[in-house]
Specification:
Blueprint: E1 5-11, E2 15-16, H1 26-41, E3 50-54, H2 66-73, E4 82-85, H3 91-105, E5 110-118, H4 126-133, H5 143-149, H6 156-166, H7 171-190, H8 216-220, E6 240-249, H9 251-256, E7 263-272, H10 282-293, E8 302-305, H11 310-320, H12 333-336, H13 343-358, E9 362-369, E10 373-381
Parallel strand pairs: 3-4, 3-5, 8-9
Antiparallel strand pairs: 1-6, 1-7, 2-6, 5-6, 7-10, 9-10
């Protein structure tokens, strides 16, 4: 069985809602990172066997298989196929898993995994909202769902609140975590740590999300998203626009195309979790993927876990005894933003570049997902 090697990883800057990327068509934004990927790796796009593309809001400009539209918009040959994947926030991390599966099975030699989301144009939950406005049923409106879960409110915001309460996470602790996320992102930007992974676009060369004026005092004055709750806008990931892509290659493709491996896809896992709490999946996903590797968390040199909410990361850290100094050392989605379908590939791009820059052997990526799921991926530096 061949190994699956990440040989290229690039992303756009992450734009704020209404910011520099807000008017860029999602297919054009995705095409930009695809062109940058082949430019940086030197691979002929006509040699690529498949493109697996994450996107959550598959409506409007992101409908009708945005992955395929993106490939054609990039000017790649028409024989290069594409598929769009929806595993909610983990869509493009799942795309990487699927790419690695194709490579390992011997069914492909070069596969692109990535994703896009322009939330300025396609707000979160747009497919559900537009469906209801058109007179369609709710996705969880079936009798069998009601028999199992009743009429409980199912939302990521409620899940984040429930997690904060169940794990005893007070607002002050979560706000300190958010301030740290912004501080790390700002320091990494100033140090130029993101430069190698970003393909500038629309006059934007750095992420728009990090706020230098973030402080515990400012965050303490914000109103909770729910009356009496602990979660504020500052403790939730930012609504964002962005795209990212990775090139995954077989042993044969590495040799034939004289590619330089950056990291090996070591081990993968995906789990389901409580759909009401929704966002606790990284806890069992960590246990599952580490069991498969035979590694302990202490042997993992660096970790990326999506900061969907501060409560998600802190509950996970409390359960796993993770060293937060090794978690999201360049900041996370509280500061950098969370362009849904692109975030898995964005995190992986940052992780791969950090492992190479800092000569780290093992990296772990975790993503909580709508519906109560989580992806986990262990990389080993080449």
């Amino acid at each position: 069985m061949t190994d699956a090697w990440i040989v290229g990883a690039v992303r756009s800057p992450v734009g704020r809602r209404g910011g520099a990327l807000s008017t860029v068509h999602p297919a054009d934004l995705g095409a930009h990172v695809l062109r940058a990927l082949v430019e940086r790796t030197g691979v002929d796009p006509g040699e690529i066997d498949d493109v697996l593309w994450g996107c959550v809001g598959q409506v409007g400009p992101q409908a009708s298989n945005i992955g395929r539209t993106t490939v054609l918009s990039a000017g790649w040959p028409e024989h290069v196929p594409a598929m769009t994947i929806d595993r909610q926030c983990g869509s493009s991390q799942q795309a990487l898993h699927a790419a690695a599966h194709q490579i390992r099975a011997g069914d492909a030699d070069l596969v692109v995994a990535g994703g896009v989301e322009v939330m300025s144009q396609v707000p979160i939950a747009s497919p559900t909202r537009l469906g209801l406005e058109a007179g369609m049923a709710h996705p969880r409106g079936g009798a069998d769902w009601a028999a199992r879960y009743g009429d409980e409110e199912i939302s990521q915001f409620r899940g984040a609140e429930l997690i904060a309460k169940r794990w005893g996470l007070d607002r002050a602790r979560m706000e300190r975590f958010a301030v740290e996320s912004h501080g790390r992102a700002i320091a990494s930007t100033a140090a130029g740590d993101f430069e190698a992974e970003i393909a500038p676009l629309a006059g934007l060369a750095v992420d728009e999300g990090p706020r230098p004026d973030t402080s515990a005092e400012r965050l303490a004055g914000l109103t909770p998203l729910q009356p009496g709750g602990r979660i504020t806008a500052a403790l939730a990931s930012q609504v964002s626009d962005g795209a990212a892509a990775l090139l995954v290659a077989s042993d044969r493709a590495v040799d034939r195309n004289r590619l330089t491996p950056l990291a090996r896809v070591h081990t993968m896992a995906v789990v389901g979790s409580d759909p009401v709490l929704m966002l606790t999946g990284p806890i069992p996903a960590t246990a599952t993927v580490l069991h498969r590797t035979g590694l302990s968390l202490a042997e993992i040199d660096t970790i990326e876990i999506n900061e969907a909410f501060a409560s998600v990361v802190l509950a996970w850290a409390d359960e796993t005894d993770a060293d937060l100094d090794r978690v999201n050392p360049q900041g996370g989605a509280l500061a950098l933003g969370h362009p849904l379908g692109a975030t898995g590939a964005r995190l992986m791009t940052t992780l791969v570049h950090r492992m190479g820059r800092d000569h780290l052997r093992y990296g772990l990526q975790l993503m909580c997902e709508g519906g109560g799921m989580a992806n986990a991926t262990v990389l080993e530096r080449a």
